[in-house]
Amino acid sequence: MMQESHRLRCTGCARLIALADLKENFRCPECGDLYEVEYPAWSGQNGSGQNGSGQNASGEAEGAAKRNLPNPSALRWLWKERRSSTELKDQSGVWRFRDLLPILRDEQHIVSLREGNTPLYHLVRTADLTGADRIFAKHQGMNPTGSFKDTGMTTALSVAYERGFSWVACASTGNTSAAMAAYAARAGMRSLVLIPEGKIAWGKLSQALDYGALTIQLKTDFDGCVRVLTEVVRRAPVYLLNSVNPYRLEGQKTPALEIAEQMDWEVPDHLIVPGGNLANGSALGKAFLEMKQLGLTDRVPRISIVQAEGANPLYRSMQESGGERLTPVEADTRASAIRIGNPASWRKAVKVIRATGGWVEEATEAEIALAKAEIGAEGIGCEPASAVTMVGLKKFLAAGKIGVHESVVLLLTGHTLKDSDYTIEYHRGTLLREEEIGPLGGEIEITRRNTIELDADVDAVLRVLERLAV
Length: 470
Ligand code: F0G
Prior knowledge:
By secondary structure, this protein is an alpha/beta fold. 41% of the residues lie in helices and 12% in strands. The protein has a six-stranded mixed beta sheet with strand order 4-5-13-10-11-12, with helices on both faces. A hairpin with a 5-residue loop joins strand 1 (7-10) and strand 2. Helix 6 packs across helix 7 (175-187), helix 11 crosses helix 12 and helix 12 packs across helix 14. The termini are far apart.
């Protein structure tokens, strides 16, 4: 039988599972927790899979394992070289790093839309606003379907394709469904999308339809859609592509590699990530910890997660029990992407926060809306869920947790065009209720830019310019 390049380990009870025995719901039959992909060749480096300078390996077995380890300098060079290749698997900002995600048996099965390779922007206006001068945005909204989901979808869907599935499925607040539908279409596969009725942004719904998914709106919320889908995949030969699928997280590691590469293999002091189902922070944490283990970098950033106040089960869990227990909440926020009350990957997220020394914050509706406008004013923009990262930044600066000269990367997860209704309502002044705005009224007024309606008259336009002293 073919030797697998990777194995799956339960993150709860640490049990290993044969790939053939994996259940359709990707949960451990013993303890119900989620799996994580592990590469035996690397953990052989130091026996424990921890720390990992690998310099003092002793004994024949360890020595042999050490010889299997990728060489950091060679990898850095190779990854850069691949960017100028004309091959699809090299042009993809995910598969370019395939040495750190060897999950396929045959690279012919890669399904890619040239995802990844997204920009890292220096936020100069935010420096004026906050006094912090090394703030960057890693814009995952600049992916083919407009969100970070593409990086995980190319990996997990390629696995589904390689394993011969013809149907894939997800429950989604919108972005996962858009990404899955697109990648399934590329592979000639069928896709089933379950979304909460009336609770996802139109841009995302339109994508799923355009890419040909079977799209079902259920009269429930995201958490209800997950419950239904978990049973559907048990009864039908459909491959589950929600982020409980550990192969999604392997692809979602790659923005961390890109950030390190874009910062000349320094890592930022802080990385701030929005939290919904809590897979993304976990994936990025895995990436930074693996990079350190392999000697690609010498430290990890503090990884912090920010949730919407109306969908804050992790924030509450940290406040109430230090992340020991999580009580699901009835989620409600206009940042519909993160309207999730019972996040699947919360235990993984807690581990990453603990391992990196990060924190959890929450953001009110008015704080999110203002932060989104501020990111827009940088000429960058993002969807509402992504803007919680800016709120987190401001709160961590105010609390003295982040220093003004430390380097911080905000992970922007979705493109501003994903939810243009939200943006237009904000600028019209119809998004927020008076009682939600509270003390932020002044700042919000400064950022609002409503349209002006005039007759088609040159003088009328010039008068407006004059008023603004142009
Ligand atoms: N930001 C955006 C734009 C998202 O779409 C999501 C999740 C998140 C942040 C949160 O990431 O779940 O890994 O903590 N969207 C999922 C979806 C749930 O179905 O599109 P997470």
